[in-house]
Amino acid sequence: MSAANDATDSAWPAILTWRAHDASRMESSRVQLSGNRIKAYGRIVAAASGTHPAFSASYDLVTDETGATKRLSMSVTLAERDRQLSIARDEENMWLVTDHQGQSRGSYEGALDVDVVFSPFFNALPIRRTGLYRRVDSVSLPVVYVNLPELTVRQATISYSSSGPDGGDGIKLHSPVAETTITVDGDGFIVDYPGLATRI
Q: What is the pLDDT of residue 9?
């Protein structure tokens, strides 16, 4: 194992924290890495704004050895209610979604990743899984997309275009809520997502 790999491995587990550019929202996540496998427990806390009420969302994520999402549990607290959501991918790459309305099962167009609105952390999942932070490439990927604070789930497609680690241009991202260029660290985790949040 190289010294660079030793340094990277020794940095984990770690707490990653982001603050919204308008300072009305924060996310903090305890992240454990083992190869491409990720375990994360985090929380998004948001003040009321013109687009959503005040809420707190906690999550517990586990990926498989390739970095593809295996299980996500979420809980959202609003002033008037609490709601839970569980999303799990089985061996046939089908997703079982359990929420306050019951259970549903679907392929979500072959998605291997989950994305959560307002979260810079979840954008790292496909970037790490595909290795985009280490190479020049463009991909469009289906994701299981979770809206907050509603805790609704739908299929979405997110496109990433990377100029590689030495390109200096970051990774261009096109999602249902943004078209921007994000910057990532040497492990593929978001450092700055213009319009959303920056790591502190």
A: 55
